[in-house]
Amino acid sequence: MELQLVPLHWVYLAFIVFILGVLIKRRDTTLVCVVGIFALGLIATESLSGSVSGVFNSFIFATKELLGTIFIISIIVAMSRILIITGINEVMVQPLTHFLRTPALAFWGIGLIMMVTSWFFWPSPGVALIGAVLLPVAVRVGLPALGAAMAMNLFGHGIALSGDYIIQGAPKLTADAAGLPVTAVMEASVPLVIVMGVVTTVTAFWMMRRDMRTGKWRDGLIASGQNPVSTLSEERVELPMKWKRTLAVLIPLLFIVDVIAMFVLDLQGGDATALIGGTAVFILLLVTMLAHRNKGLEQTTAYLIEGFQFGFKVFGPVIPIAAFFYLGDSAFAELFGSVLPEGSHGIVNDLGVALANHVPLNQAIGSVTLTVTGAITGLDGSGFSGISLAGSIAQLFAAAIGSGAATLTALGQVAAIWVGGGTLIPWALIPAAAICGVDPFELARRNLKPVIFGLIVTTIVAMFII
């Protein structure tokens, strides 16, 4: 017996289309999502008070789901702050500078170091952690500041953030929206992240070297003769060099032990994130007490506040959007009761089944749609705010195709993060551009063709994987 769609299904679908339209216009979607939650609540409860309460309760539900992700990013940022202020980050990275002897080695070296750093510290703090140390070395061996910005950007905000295998913020959002385990999305994303990363970075490097040879290269510095690193000004707290060296060895070792423990103890998802987060807290406490001594108690709180301010600033726009898309799955019954038809598996799944019965979908159409959807959601420059939509549509299309839920979800995630996470949208490029003293619009222009080419190739690969 075919499940009949009810007004709730059509209203939810109408708001998804509306949200996509708002994103295409590069406008904020928060208001639309709140109105959508209210409309669904009004239909489900037939009560004004119930629907108004549902808006707030949906925010609470989304915050509970995202709280681990918000906390881990906040704590990592707080820890990164004290490492930068004490100069421990410089000592950690200094040995690696000996390998950056040519422009090519500098480009790939900075990129790979940035990628590994971003897995553990997230890209924005990662840029600050290593940029001020590696940039002067790169410029000295002949790599332009804009080339260094591209490397940090593509490897950090692109490869590392689109997979996000250690902190697991991105796959948590998309997996929840698609009704999948986080590990399923992470495993499905591995080949896509590799293809996207290799194609994009190789293309960007080849284009950079070609334009430098033909004289078409523009350095893109904000001001002629400006020291690129001068844009970064941080207060400093001096530590004895022997302490810096000890901590510079100890901190990476602790995170390496965490990674080993993840494999040995089979820690995944929230458990793996908690291990990294707990380690970061203890590193923050240790370094803060050593650096500030009798003021360490107060400074610990100050760094945590700064970290949480960053975390909630990043995820503030995400919560209302995620709240709406969580209603497409398990959140609806929890918030509004069992008002969907008997046999329903959630609004999104029902729409997917109905789509399969009326529209001929295949792997190619599904892959292209998810890439375009992911790219559109990234137009706001966040990368995170719209990936719940990508996960929700992936669930819809996978139900219609009959397979490929994890791959489609991962594809939408990769497209959204690469476009909006900090490689194409100028205002999202500011961390890397500021460290290198280059124009964010010029950096976005340089990244445009490699990223688009990478998305095309990755979408084709996904068609064959599904």
Automatic annotation (TrEMBL):
It comes from the Bacteria. Coiled coil: none annotated. The keyword Transit peptide does not apply. The chain crosses the membrane at residues 6-24, 31-60, 66-88, 100-121, 127-143, 188-208, 246-265, 271-291, 303-327, 387-408, 415-435, 447-465. The keyword Transmembrane helix applies. Keywords: Membrane, Transmembrane, Transmembrane helix. Signal peptide: none annotated. This is Transporter. It comes from Paenibacillus montanisoli.
